DNA sequence: GCAAGTTGCAACATCGGTGTTGCATGTTCT
DNA sequence: AGAACATGCAACACCGATGTTGCAACTTGC
């Protein structure tokens, strides 16, 4: 309906504007989800009417933001080849890749109602991917045989969410965070092994 | 300013209304933080004007909701005697108590801007309490000596948040969840001990 | 039972955000 | 250079949420 991408080949000029608006929306809405269009426009360095020209309604802007972030999310997971790489490697790689995206698009990825079927579909796909990866990890003996995979997945998501809150987006920083996330996920923060 | 408690001894009648409104606000706002006062009033079974009579503005309703939940939060932590009980026991007890409160007041406790100094103060106090408990756990040899206490605390909060998402508020269910949270916090979901 | 307090209802004023239009001034692309 | 496109600006209509008031009917507490 109001999808700006793949509808008409936008002029280079306008394309930059769209990007600026999406990035501004991420920044502004992450600190105040109810912020008016005016603030987003201002943060993007454009007039309010321009925002409305690119996104018919506030709703469609939100939808586009969600779609954009979701696509990046999906790409980040796929790039780690979670179905074919050795499970331990895949876990680390997925973690690092997703962290990289989530730093900078955290709001759009997390605190956004995914009404759009497009977005929900991708999220479901990634969820299934995650489920498969965890199964492979369990079969490889890295997770306890009786692991509740749903709980495991939710803990994993939560740890990534927490780690992403520490802003820096350097490659080194991302690797440090990913290491910490994977280590905490597998071993917790305690000293002893599982009883 | 707009604190309905301890200002004037409200009539039993009105007290019930205030409670109903706060509970309704929790329910409604948790599914839609931007929901209009009308919906909250409807959910509470009162007229919109009544809500305005008890809470001068939307802002003050939010503030009262945050204050109410924060108080319960604080009480839940204190009831576990985290400074005097054996650290392992305290950890479990705090977890169970907080889970009990967080199920049912999750929105007010988590997704609420804590502008009020009252609320911020209590949150800071609980945070310090948590820090002390984790130090005691570390000194008791239950956490690795090199543990990043800030990361540990954030993981702990995140796990509680996740666990609280599973609605049931039975004593048995809370104990099951608390066990899972503590176990995951200390040992993660992997098989082997820390390398 | 009576006074004080509480609620629902209807009506009103107000405000801020949303979305639209027209036009003049740039910018892009070929 | 010229056509097509993009943007800023100003003005407007509109809507829904907020907050207020007055009054009649009811409940609570003593």
Automatic annotation (TrEMBL), chains A, B:
Signal peptide: none annotated. The keyword Amino-acid biosynthesis does not apply. Residues 36-55 bind DNA. Keywords: DNA-binding, Transcription, Transcription regulation. Residues 15-73 form the HTH tetR-type domain. This is HTH tetR-type domain-containing protein. It comes from Streptomyces aurantiacus JA 4570. InterPro entries: Homeodomain-like_sf (IPR009057), HTH-type_TetR-like_transc_reg (IPR050109), HTH_TetR (IPR001647), Tet_transcr_reg_TetR-rel_C_sf (IPR036271). One of its GO terms (molecular function) is transcription cis-regulatory region binding. Gene3D superfamilies: Tetracycline Repressor, domain 2 (1.10.357.10). It holds the Pfam family TetR_N.
């Amino acid at each position: 309906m109001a999808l700006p991408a793949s509808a008409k080949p936008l002029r280079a000029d306008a394309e930059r504007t769209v990007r600026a608006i999406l990035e501004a929306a991420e920044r502004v809405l992450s600190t105040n989800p109810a912020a008016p269009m005016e603030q987003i426009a201002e943060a993007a360095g454009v007039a309010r009417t321009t925002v409305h020209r690119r996104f018919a309604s506030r709703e469609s802007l939100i939808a586009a933001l969600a779609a954009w972030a979701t696509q990046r999310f999906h790409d980040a997971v796929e790039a780690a080849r979670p179905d074919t790489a050795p499970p331990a490697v895949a876990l680390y790689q997925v973690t690092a890749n997703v962290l990289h995206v989530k730093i900078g698009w955290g709001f759009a990825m997390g605190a956004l109602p995914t009404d759009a079927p497009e977005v929900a579909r991708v999220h479901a796909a990634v969820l299934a991917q995650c489920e498969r990866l965890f199964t492979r990890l369990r079969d490889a003996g890295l997770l306890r045989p009786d692991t509740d995979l749903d709980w495991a997945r939710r803990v994993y998501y939560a740890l990534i969410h927490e780690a992403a809150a520490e802003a820096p987006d350097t490659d080194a920083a991302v690797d440090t965070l990913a290491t910490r996330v994977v280590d905490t996920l597998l071993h917790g923060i305690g000293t002893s092994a599982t009883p």
